[in-house]
From TrEMBL, chains A, B:
Domain of life assignment: Bacteria
GO molecular function terms attached to this record: DNA-binding transcription factor activity
Family matches, as PROSITE patterns: HTH_MARR_2 (PS50995)
One Pfam family per UniProt: MarR_2
Example of a GO biological process term: response to stress
Annotated protein name in UniProt: MarR family transcriptional regulator
Signal peptide interval: none
Domain (HTH marR-type): residue spans on this chain: 1-114
Gene3D superfamilies: Winged helix-like DNA-binding domain superfamily/Winged helix DNA-binding domain (1.10.10.10)
Coiled-coil ranges (or none): none
Length: 114, 114
DNA sequence: CAGAAAAGAAACGCTTGCGTAACGATCGGC
DNA sequence: GCCGATCGTTACGCAAGCGTTTCTTTTCTG
């Protein structure tokens, strides 16, 4: 069953969520960073820099930098892959899960108030 | 009738939209800029720098800079208010309307594919 | 009509992200 | 074992955003 949305409702939802997120959270993740974060948490692991770069259609340094930033915020973690030590496996964190959980609630609440 | 969303569906929708938007459009508006843009286009005018700053909970220079950037992209326009020449009234543009229309379609399509 | 107040922009120094290119570390094929 | 390929990071110069402060123009007040 698809999510039923009219054009104006869709933009209205985005509007309400963006507005509330800006008001509530000073951490201003870029859309790219958000896409990366959601990819990590919603798609089954393992996640690598190269894989994320390919999925997002961006270069590898973009991923590295985003992981730097979000790592400093505690939203993700990096672990060297012991099977192939060239790889880095991106790990989820409790704080990251909490962050997205709150964000999901925000979407739902704003959707309810539409 | 509210938009019905479960937590995972809400994040999934955001994920799909963010991913597709990153892949398709090199213009990477920040969440703040997007919130401003949507406010301008979804809420009845007039819109002023001061009003937007208050609504978003940010300082005036943030709005000025965002309008500079989005103005350069053709997404919004600025016109001096002739009634009170201290004010600037933010105007919508055809290109901005088109941009949001496409974005709305993106949300709907991704919502359908959930 | 002088002085305070208000609106928006500009200036300042700083931080962060970008794309491209170069780099060390590690693996795989011969 | 070596040499090319692969993975992630780092370096570089540049553009854009931030918060704070200052400035200019315009309006309101007494």
């Amino acid at each position: 069953m698809p999510v039923e949305l009219t054009p104006s409702r869709a933009l209205g939802l985005w509007h309400a969520v963006a507005l509330e997120q800006v008001r509530v959270d000073s951490r201003d993740l870029t859309l790219r960073q958000m896409a990366i974060l959601l990819q990590i948490y919603l798609v089954p692991p393992p996640h690598t820099v190269r894989g994320l770069a390919a999925t997002l259609g961006v270069t590898k340094p973009v991923i590295t930098r985003a992981l730097d930033t979000m790592g400093a915020l505690g939203l993700v973690d990096r672990v060297r892959d012991e099977r192939d030590r060239r790889n880095v496996v991106i790990k989820r964190t409790v704080e990251g899960a909490l962050y997205l959980e709150k964000f999901g609630d925000l979407i739902i609440n704003q959707g309810r108030n539409l």
